Amino acid sequence: MDKNNKSVKKIKADEIEWKGIDGFLISIFFIVCAVIWISIIKKIDAIIGYAIPILLAIIVTAIFIAYLREIYKFSKK
């Protein structure tokens, strides 16, 4: 019965966490796509040229820092 519990835990670990970083990344993807599409259709250059690159740089940096924290916590154990 111990082996069954380990396999059940493995399956749960592979699922998408909608309230965690996975859900955040998926929602940000769709939001950024919608904003870029609307900006192209409406020809809003400020959003395409300045806002989107800065926003994406901030998001990527925040995710990178979150992963560094996870690695640091893992290495301390």
Description:
- The longest helix has 32 residues, at 45-76.
- 86% of the residues lie in helices and 0% in strands.
- The chain is built from three helices and no strands.
- α2 packs antiparallel against α3 (45-76).
- The chain is mainly alpha-helical and 77 residues long.
- It is elongated and about 50 Å long.
- The protein has a domain at 43-76.
- It has helices spanning 2-13, 21-42, 45-76.
- The model has no long low-confidence stretch (mean pLDDT 81).
- The chain crosses the membrane at residues 21-41, 47-68.
- Keywords: Membrane, Transmembrane, Transmembrane helix.
Task: Give the SSE map.
Layout (H helix, E strand, L loop, with lengths): L1 H12 L7 H22 L2 H32 L1
Helix pairs in contact: 2-3
Keywords: Membrane, Transmembrane, Transmembrane helix
How do the SSEs run, as a string of H and E? HHH
Task: Please describe the biggest sheet, giving its number of strands, its sense, and whether it closes into a barrel.
Answer: none
Q: pLDDT average, as an integer? A: 81
What would you call the structural class?
Answer: mainly alpha
Shape: elongated
SS element count, helices: 3
Residue runs with pLDDT of under 50 for 5 or more positions: none
Proportion of residues in extended strands: under 5%
